[in-house]
C-alpha cells in the first residue's frame, strides 16, 4: 500500500463534447433494434460534417475485395465475435486494416456490434484501438480497425513457438502501463464513465513498437452516475477475469475492471494463463495459486516467468506484485483506482529504464530467494 501512497493522482480532464456523445450512446442503447442502424447512419452523416466521427461506412463488396473474399490465408485471428482478416482498403490509399467479421452463430451479436461502433466512434485515445469503419449491410456485421502488426498480448505470453523471443521485463511493464492508461481514459475522462468489462490479454493489441491498445468493446457498459454506486447487469465477460463481486451479484463498477487488470498483470509477471487445466489441480487457477505466495516476499521469485531467466529488477518485481495484489483484493472498495495504478506503473517503468541502463549487480538477479 505504501507504494501507492507515494504516488500522486494525475490531474483528470473531461471533454464537454464527450459527455454529450456518451449521452447520445446511452439514448441509442434503449432504442428499438429496428431503429438502431438508421440511427447510426444518420449520426454518421451528421457528425462527419462536424469532424467528430472519423469512422467510415463500407460496403460488403469493398471489404470482400480488401480481404480477397475473406480468404483463409488472410485470417490473423479468431475470437468470440468472429474471425479477423488482414486487408487493404483501396479507397483509403491501400491502407492496411484488420477486418473483424461477425460469426452469425457466435456468442456476440448485433447488440455488441452496435455498442462497439458507438463507443469507438465517440471515444478516442492513444491506448484504444482506432475504428476505421464498419459494414452493416443485410445480415453482415463487420468492423474495420487499424492493423496492429504485433497481434495481441496473448500471442507473446503463452505457448510461444520455438525461436520466438519472450517479452522482456521492460516491455511487459510498458504494455501494462499503456493498457492501464486505456482503462483510466474510460473510467476518468469519459462522462459518464465506461466500464470495459472484458479486460484480458487477447483484447490488448500491440503495434510495431509494442505500444498497447484496448480492443473489443462489445461488452462495454456505461458506469454509474450521480449518487449511484454501481450498475446492475447480466454477468458477462471471460471466466477467470471477472471480479468476484460482479460474478456473484451482477453489480458492476470501475473497480471490476481494476480486478481484471490485476489478473492480466499477474499473467504478464508469471507467464501463466489465468486458467490452465494442463497443470496440477493446485495450480490450475492462477489467482488461487498466487495469492498465498503474494503474502510471502521470500516466495516472490517463484512467481516470475521462467522465460525471463532472472533478468528483471528485484525492486521492480516487488512493486509489480504489490500492484497486482492490491488490484486483486476481494473487497472492491479497497482496490486502488486505475489512476493510482497508472501512476504506480509509471514510476515502476521509470525505475526499470534506469535499471536497464545501469545493469548493476544490485538491480538484477539470476536466481535464488529474495533477501
Question: Main traits of this protein?
Answer:
disordered C terminus, 371 residues, 6-stranded mixed beta sheet, 12 strands, alpha+beta, Transferase(Phosphotransferase), domain 1, 39% helix, two-stranded antiparallel sheet, Phosphorylase Kinase, domain 1, 11 helices, 2 domains
Helix and strand topology:
Elements: H1 2-5, H2 16-29, H3 33-50, E1 56-57, H4 60-66, E2 75-78, E3 82-89, E4 95-102, H5 110-122, E5 131-135, E6 142-146, H6 169-189, E7 194-195, E8 204-206, E9 212-214, E10 221-222, E11 231-232, H7 244-249, E12 251-252, H8 254-270, H9 286-294, H10 314-327, H11 338-358
Parallel strand pairs: 1-5
Antiparallel strand pairs: 2-3, 3-4, 4-6, 5-6, 7-10, 8-9, 11-12
Helix pairs in contact: 2-5, 6-8, 6-11, 8-10, 10-11
Question: Describe it for me?
Answer:
The protein is α+β, with helices and mostly antiparallel strands. The protein has 2 domains: 2-12 and 151-358, Transferase(Phosphotransferase) domain 1 (Transferase(Phosphotransferase), domain 1), CATH 1.10.510.10; 31-146, Phosphorylase Kinase, domain 1 (2-Layer Sandwich), CATH 3.30.200. It is 39% helix and 12% strand. The chain is built from 11 helices and 12 strands. The protein has helices at 2-5, 16-29, 33-50, 60-66, 110-122, 169-189, 244-249, 254-270, 286-294, 314-327, 338-358; strands at residues 56-57, 75-78, 82-89, 95-102, 131-135, 142-146, 194-195, 204-206, 212-214, 221-222, 231-232, 251-252. A 6-stranded mixed β-sheet has the order 1-5-6-4-3-2, sandwiched between helices. It has a two-stranded antiparallel sheet with strand order 7-10. It has a two-stranded antiparallel ribbon with strand order 8-9. The longest helix is centred in the middle third of the chain and has 21 residues, at 169-189.
